Amino acid sequence: xxxxxxxxxxxxxxxxxxxxxxxxxxxxxxxxxxxxxxxxxxxxxxxxxxxxxxxxxxxxxxxxxxxxxxxxxxxxxxxxxxxxxxxxxxxxxxxxxxxxxxxxxxxxxxxxxxxxxxxxxxxxxxxxxxxxxxxxxxxxxxxxxxxxxxxxxxxxxxxxxxxxxxxxxxxxxxxxxxxxxxxxxxxxxxx
Length: 191
Known about the structure:
Distance between the termini: 82 Å
Radius of gyration: 21 Å
Largest sheet: 3 strands, antiparallel
Strand content: 5-15%
Number of strands: 7
Strand order of the largest sheet: 3-7-4
């Protein structure tokens, strides 16, 4: 007689297809609603890699981002926002080690983090889900944080508190100028 027990759900696979599962509570949360669309898309793309036993070992290098139509600038800006609202946790910072590249690794905070020695702080036992997104409260300057992230994701330079353009601070002659050196080189009539 065949067993009628249900198989344990250990991954997000249906007939060879992968999918992302995002809980309704997350979609209705203040953390989710505060995110721009590119950060929500990034979360969904990262969540699509979760197989039930690999949380904390989720990567999202530029090669995967291209498959989802997400630019590397959107990844950079989105990861920061997702971390700030508590939807993901970075378990390993990307770096060069022993002559090879190690990509950053992430965990979804709605699931327990699996034990691994790959993380910056290795885990011997499974770490419970933090659900940090559920406790997130929008800070007063959140709109400015999102605007800065959107500009960064679009590749536009932005004003920083020191008056620069988001790149290396300018070491000038001490005179304040509202014009860049390129502006002076524009052809006549180009404004």
